[in-house]
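Worked example 2:
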Amino acid sequence: MAYFEEASDVLRRANVIGDCEIHGYEVLIDEGRLTTAYKIGAKMVKAGEVGADHVTFMEAIKSAVGDYGDCIGCRQSSSHD
């Protein structure tokens, strides 16, 4: 996906994603902060920090959040209990 790294950086800065404290995998923390991520992304586009137009970058952020979920390590650990 185009702009995945930049979109993931925005999601991390907005605390939408973060690292699992046990396994270190990137996981979805708070999808409710997506509005904050869009605001950060819009500022980046306006400042020319991203080589995409506004709509394209907002779609990249929306798409990137779908790539994160629960920690795979935690899921595997709980399936063995």
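The domain at 4-79 is CATH 1.10.10 (Arc Repressor Mutant, subunit A). The first helix runs from residue 4 to 13.
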